[in-house]
Design a protein that fits this description.
Helices cover 41% and strands 20% of the residues. With 281 residues, it is α+β, with helices and mostly antiparallel strands. The chain is elongated and about 70 Å long.
Length: 281
Amino acid sequence: MNWIESLQKAIQYIEEHLLENVTMEQISAQAHISPFHFQRTFALLTDVTVFEYIRRRRLTLAAHELLQSDHKIIDLAHKYGFDTPESFSKAFRRQHGIAPSEARKSSTSIKSYNRLVIQVSLKGAEPMNYKIVEQDEFTLVGIKQAFSYVDGENLREIPKIWQEAYSSGTEDRLVELNNGAIQGLLGVCVDQTEIEDKQMEYWIGTAYEGEVPEGLASITIPASKWSVFEVQGPMPESIQSLWKQIVSEWFPSNPYEHAGIPELEVYPGHHQPPQIWIPIK
């Protein structure tokens, strides 16, 4: 099963169990990747989280049923996964711009979010510069913070860590400590779901050999083969665009699979372009 087929199978599973309380583990198992990597891949491809997609699809179906039946609003609320009519009405208004009771009485249009179909997009006019690198195990020292990846909390909070690292002088300290295998600052997402459900750690650090400096933590990045992509253009738009291009174009067109260890964003400094390091097998 290829990359796109596995993702489409997971989406099919979501659709078939849309009114059930399925877990991220059950969904990601359909794609044969971890919940963490499935969440990241899904968000990169669609610009929404898995749970936001499920919410939108439920509210789309709820609106259709509301307009085509005389079922009570409280019954529809429970059917589509809301604890109370009030929470259902609030979510319904946020998506459709109108309350359920008003939608039933008027001819106001509603928003329909259709089921996803993942397609390969090959854009030869946008070349991807990458190289394959073999890198031995190395130690990263830096700061870290844990986040939930549910509803995109990690996407909202990670930029704040970088702002704090800059204002506190931590970035400058890490640059001075850098004496390891990779030059520059590294941003690293680490899957923590085996330790705590729906959790990830985000690190800002640098490759370092020696005793761990006071006030910093360390993590070992395993040896791996990496596909290293060079970011071209203004930040942060260019790196976000490249992430999506890697998932939607590069993986479907190449024989590699994700190796399941942390990915790296590398900021070499000295006017060199940032890089994205993807562990592959």
